[in-house]
Design a protein that fits this description.
The chain has 12 helices and 2 strands; from the N terminus they run H-H-H-H-H-H-H-H-H-E-H-H-E-H. The protein is an all-alpha fold.
Length: about 280
């Protein structure tokens, strides 16, 4: 069972868990950390089973509150039973020791969201596009790769990943009835999108340098990155909800991203962006 040891969970959980040290993989009493992770794994497993129709909860139970403490405790006990540890306690006392008081379930849900969104697999997804784009920019400058082909390849990959994430995220939010929980979840979602946008800033800056162009007045690498990120997120959520992930919809998305990037560039001298870039990239 993978517990994402490489993530600084105490820092992420601070303010939402009574004793963040209980989520620290460096804790000498590793059983305490494992119990915390089991509770979070239990919540995710229960959500997945509810969505797939495998949940053992009654219709009345699911209609009233679709992720309750008894559900989490029951699921956690099932998971802990299969672990090769004898000292992992996941009963009511262990749960309330981490998520106390009347707002305990809201705080538990926030930890669940952070655990899900900060997992290393999402970090790999966030890094792929910027890393590939930076590696390919010298080829664009050398005339080996067309800029539109690069934008198309990276944009489609990021869109697919964001569609997958949107489905995962929307499914989780669909289980949340309480408005307080919804606001907390959206805060974590925005944090993830901000991290995604920040990773693209160096790419746009390097692109300007290599291609010898500049932004129009008022446009910066940060603003363009935020706009492209928002556009990608909007498309992804729409396609995830509509189930319209077709070649036509992807082509429309790529065209819109290319138009957004080109509109941000200032070719100077009254020239069109395409003509200016073609001149810059013409083999000498």
């Amino acid at each position: 069972m993978h517990f994402n040891d490489e993530v600084d969970w105490p820092e992420l959980f601070r303010g939402y868990i009574s004793r963040p040290s209980q989520a620290d993989p460096r804790n000498p009493r590793r059983c305490v950390y494992i119990a915390t992770m089991v509770f979070l794994k239990a919540g995710l497993k229960e959500i997945e089973d509810q969505l797939s129709g495998r949940s053992r909860g009654s219709r009345d139970e699911l209609a009233g509150a679709r992720l309750t403490r008894p559900m989490v405790l029951r699921r956690a006990a099932e998971i802990a039973e299969k672990l090769p540890y004898d000292d992992v306690h996941v009963g009511e006392g262990a749960f309330t020791d981490r998520w106390k008081g009347a707002g305990g379930m809201a705080n538990y849900f926030m930890c669940l969201v952070k655990y899900t969104c900060k997992a290393p697999r999402w970090g790999l997804f966030l890094n792929y596009g910027p890393r590939q784009a930076l590696a390919a920019l010298p080829k664009v400058r050398g005339g080996e790769l067309d800029l539109t082909d690069l934008v198309s390849k990276i944009a489609i990959h990021d869109l697919r990943m964001r569609i997958r994430f949107a489905k995962y995220w929307l499914f989780q939010l669909s289980l949340v009835i309480d408005e307080k929980w919804r606001a907390v979840a959206m805060t974590a979602y925005r944090e993830l999108l901000d991290a995604y946008s920040t990773r693209w800033v160096p790419v746009y800056e390097e692109g300007l340098r290599l291609l010898g162009v500049k932004f129009r007045p008022g446009v910066t690498a940060e603003t363009l990155s935020a706009m492209v990120s928002a556009q990608t997120s909007g498309f992804a959520q729409h396609l995830a909800g509509a189930g319209d992930d077709t070649k036509e919809s992807r082509d429309l998305f790529v065209t819109s991203v290319q138009a957004l990037i080109y509109a941000a560039l200032d070719p100077g001298d009254g020239r069109g962006v395409s003509d200016a870039l073609r001149e810059v990239l013409r083999p000498s």
